[in-house]
Amino acid sequence: MSRILAGIQAAQMGLLVNALLVVTKLIAGIVGNSYALVADAIESSTDIFSSLVVLQGLRVASRPADSLHPYGYGRAEPLAAGVVALMLLAAAVCVAILAIREILTPHHAPAPFTLVVVGGVVVIKELLFRTVFRVGSETGSTAVKADAWHHRSDALTSAAAFIGISIALWGGPGWESADDWAALVAAAIIAVNGVRFLLAAKNDLMDRTPDSALLAQVEAAARSVDGVRATEKLRVRKLGVDYSIDLHVQADPGLSLHDAHIVGGKVKSAIRTALPAAKDVLIHMEPFEG
């Protein structure tokens, strides 16, 4: 299974689960008089749209390169991640505003049955987070990992709701707003994750150099090839779930052009073997001068 296809399937799974949970939480929140649960449902509704954005972004990113886009459509993936991050921030603001309004407005304590609903949501969303995040890590997709954190933030808001509802029920009269304070805490958690993935998407779009471990892996693969005397000017950028690599390789000045070309081909193969996500590898052969 290709990495893009795995990401698409993960987004589709999240889309289905979120749709079911939004309806469940919204009905339970309204009937059970729990604003934290209603806020949780609002946050989950953004998960539906985020999964749709990720789904479309991955589909566009999977298109092959053409004459107008010689480097492919990989940038669609971090663009999708950026949109998802902005949606997280918008959801955080919305939940915070509504939570503050409810804190200032006296209301009844939530119904006990809402605890059962919230507890189930925490378990389901945490399992969904772990599944989707594993796919995002395996594929190297920032968008899929951002979508996974949408699920984790949902699990955290549900956990906050569980605590708030428990305090409201246990404390009795005067503690009804604990449910709403929990929603406010959840909004802060959502905002933090939104900023985190917005920065990650920005880094991919601005061609920020990957971590040093990946660079060392590429250099080690290149230098393992027989005939390579030195390497320099390594440049790596992330294009969606793939990497584009540009490397200068120094070899014996006495090599013929044909032999130097063969060495360059071996270096390219070695890098792709060590890093399967290296889709585009450009090797510049130069004479070794000591």
Question: What does this 3D model show about the protein?
Answer:
The structure is a single chain. This protein has 8 helices and 3 strands. The protein has helices at residues 3-31, 35-61, 76-103, 113-139, 142-171, 178-205, 212-223, 257-274; strands spanning 228-239, 242-251, 278-287. It has a 3-stranded mixed beta sheet with strand order 1-2-3, covered by helices on one side.
What are the defining features of this structure?
single chain, 290 residues, mainly alpha, Alpha-lytic protease prodomain-like, Alpha-Beta Plaits, 11% strand, elongated
This entry's quaternary arrangement is single chain
Biggest β-sheet description: 3 strands, mixed
CATH topology of the largest domain: Alpha-lytic protease prodomain-like
Amino- and carboxy-terminal Cα gap: 45 Å
Average pLDDT: 82
> What structural class is derived from the secondary structure elements?
mainly alpha
CATH architecture of the largest domain: Up-down Bundle
- The name of the CATH superfamily of the largest domain reads Cation efflux protein transmembrane domain
Order of helices and strands: HHHHHHHEEHE
Strand order of the largest sheet: 1-2-3
Give me a quick take on this structure.
This protein is mainly α. It has two domains: 3-205, Alpha-lytic protease prodomain-like, CATH 1.20.1510.10; 212-287, Alpha-Beta Plaits (2-Layer Sandwich), CATH 3.30.70. It has eight helices and three strands.
